[in-house]
Amino acid sequence: MRLSSTPSIVPPNGRPLSDGVPPPTLASLKGMNDGELMAHLQAGCHDALAVLFDRYHRLVLSIALKIVRDPGEAEDVMQSVFLEIFRSVAQFDPAKGSTKMWILQYAYHRAINRRTHLIARKFYNQTNLEEGETRLSDATLALGRFSQPELKHLLRQGLRTLSAPQKQVVELASYDGFSMREIADRTGDSLSNVRHHYYRGLQKLRAFVGGTPEKRKGEGGHE
Between 164-174 and 191-210, two packed helices, what is the crossing angle to 10 degrees? Predict the structure, then answer.
């Protein structure tokens, strides 16, 4: 499941934007604080959700990953959190807390509920717990020293060092936003194999990006 754009859902409170007043542009929304964004979202400006998503989806994903311990499940939790925020925006009261805390409360509750559900289904008996605790954030720890063009170039090189199944799974998860289960359905591979390809692929990418230029050349990269 992906939040590639703001969902086309009628605002929960049914309040339209003021007659004759054009909605704010995406650029102007990006310069607003969280409270202003929530006010616009409550008034029916769907682009405000996209800005909130850009600001907080990494934090929500990090919380979900720490709790459910599976990248695919964490992605699903993240998507459900923002869809729930969209549906429940009329309930937001700035007098009771900040937008950030409101979003984090949803993140914790949805992640804990999902983990409880997965435990009941014995989900964690189906995968290697050591691999299950791999953090998506680990993959980015060594990336801060690169500019955006350099990083894109390195990632393209790193993908060439992966096996075909690893490359396919990493691209579907990272670029297209599919969960592990969706990738298994799409490729016809087992869920355990998909996870294995994903974790091994991430490990290789981290090692490639964190290596020296000489080492990258030896691994098949072309500077």
Answer: 90
Give pLDDT, residue 28.
92
SS3 202: helix
Long-range contacts of 186-191 (CB under 8 A, 24+ apart): 189/165, 191/126
Angle at 11 between CA 98 and CA 38, to 5 degrees: 20
* Cα separations in angstroms, 70 against 98, 125, 126, 179: 29, 13, 12, 10
What angle in degrees, to the nearest 10, is found between the helix axes of 34-42 and 47-68?
110
Q: Tokens 């009771």 correspond to what residue?
A: 96
Per-residue model confidence (pLDDT) at position 69: 81
Strand locations in 123-178 (E): none
The CA-CA-CA angle for residues 119, 123, 124, to 5°, reads 80
Domains and CATH numbers, the chain: 26-125 (1.10.1740.10), 135-218 (1.10.10.10)
Residue ranges of the chain with per-residue pLDDT less than 70:
1-21, 124-152, 174-177, 209-223
Distance (Å, rounded) from C-alpha 65 to C-alpha 98?
23
CB 147 within 8 A of CB 121: no
